[in-house]
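Predict the 3D structure for this chain.
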Amino acid sequence: MAFLQINYYSNVLGMDRVMNVILPELSEHNPQWTNTVLQDIPVLYLLHGMSGDQAVWQRRTNIERLVRQTPIAVIMPSTDLAWYTNTQYGMHYFDALFEELPQKVAELLPQISTKREKNFVAGLSMGGYGAFKMAFSGQKFSYAASLSGALLGDPNFPERDTWQNSAYWQGIFGNLDKLMGSENDVLTLATKQADSQQQLPQLYAWIGEQDFLYDNNEQAIAHFKTLGYDVTFETDPGEHEWYYWDKKIERVLEWLPIDYQPEKRLS
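Done. Predicted structure below.
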């Protein structure tokens, strides 16, 4: 696998951005691969949480090692602290990631598939929210996974005010009293998509039983199921920590419709 750090200019945001990319390549480690295998490659867009950036998944997990034997690309962008949202202060982060980034990937890395059935999105915490938001906002992604996601549009979701102050949240979402039912409420987006008769994405969600977002996830997943989404929902003892996300990202890879090849382990 090759690792690329791609610096590019975002016309949407009006500034330079960075995406980290794990990209399959022909090598002695994968003699079974051919040039044909490395065309139309499936891709996983992997989104960070509130304290992260485009590098955090590689710094805190084994993602690069886990996909070493599997022909899949992994795109890791950054939304800063903008919650994968077109903010009230005029920075259109959602458009930059949902619309512009896939176009940039197609331009720079043409071996990566543009087909919906081969495009997937996943994330943790804020990134879990972002992954479902992107999956519910159109027909770009066929599978979406959330690990410990902040999934409800409820402005009073647990411990919000310990993360940032009210001025921050209003700068992202505007009037918090109007968040539920808005374009930034994933429950509303899921409902609109289900009502539109569009193809629905397959969903996966994991949450630790001791995570402060546990009730938040149970309510959201129940709502998605009533709308007709195919949801795989799993829980285990766990908190809002990287130890669990490192383990569960492999579960996401197993769940995706790819030829995932786990590494050999003797114990």
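DSSP finds nine helices and eight strands in the chain.
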